[in-house]
Amino acid sequence: MKDILEELNADPFDYVKTVNTPIGVYLRREVFQEKCDTMLKRNLYKRISANQSADGSWNNLFVDTANNLWDLHLLDYEADDVSTKRGLSWLLTIQRHQYRGYPGFFLSDNREDARKMRHTLYGEFGPGCMIFYQTAYAIHLFHLFGFDENQRVQTAVKSYLQFWRPNWCGAWCTINVLRVLIEHNLSAHSEQVEKGIKLLAGRQTKRGGWKGFPFYHTVHALSRSEHALAERQVKKAFGSVVKRQNQDGSWGNQRQETETFLVLDALRNIDAQQHVQ
């Protein structure tokens, strides 16, 4: 990891050390191997858990609930944590929808979620179609907390494997769904994932970006794949990663914190794969 970071024009730790949020805690711990600030972690947890509603959600909104659960993961809390457990239980209460007859989809009844999704510049998932945004994000959270073998989670993944094609919807929906299919053990080596990776390869430009697709989210999603074509695309994108870095060591503009996370976590994923090989 150190070798990769040394190729950058600025030291990203200069930015990361100033970020006192769950993302900052995660990056300092997982990327830079810094000792955790126990007091900061405790205070962030208190703030998150204090805002949790009685039903286990945050504000009865999927977006708020998913982002807070992601924050708990970033802070290194596990599935047996009380707030985490209650939040995941709430997610299961909204898994009651079908898409064209396929079961297992997550969708909240709160109309505010659509507006919230479009205006939230945070996290690994972007503003696609509501049912696919919520379902993909929920599957991802259950993956992070160790529930890949959960039958209800597998039902959703199996449904995607039956109908999903990488060009069936817009760019955000493609990346949101492809991300979870890449990481889930039922789908990581599926035909659907291979087709998705090939579609992105066809969209990648000489500069390393992907025409019509969000750069940072695409880099991060592909960095989780063991597919050789995905690895080649991420390597090709590295030159653009270097050029896009801000002077303070971060990446992005409006989504600065998120996009810095996506880059550094992608580099961490690449480093981990190289060590395995």
Q: Strands, helices and their partners?
A:
Layout: H1 2-6, H2 13-16, H3 22-31, H4 38-50, H5 62-74, H6 82-93, E1 95-99, E2 102-106, H7 112-119, H8 130-144, H9 151-163, H10 171-183, H11 191-203, H12 215-223, H13 228-244, H14 256-276
Antiparallel strand pairs: 1-2
Helix pairs in contact: 3-14, 5-6, 5-8, 8-10, 10-12, 12-14
- DSSP helical segment count: 14
Mean pLDDT: 95
**CATH class descriptor:** Mainly Alpha
Radius of gyration: 18 Å
Low-confidence stretches: none
CATH fold annotation: Glycosyltransferase
**Residue share in helix:** 55-70%
Task: Report the sheet-strand fraction.
Answer: under 5%
Distance between the termini: 14 Å
CATH architecture classification? Alpha/alpha barrel
**Largest pleated sheet:** 2 strands, antiparallel
Instruction: Tell me the count of domains.
Output: 1
Query: What class, by secondary structure content?
Result: mainly alpha
Largest sheet strand order: 1-2
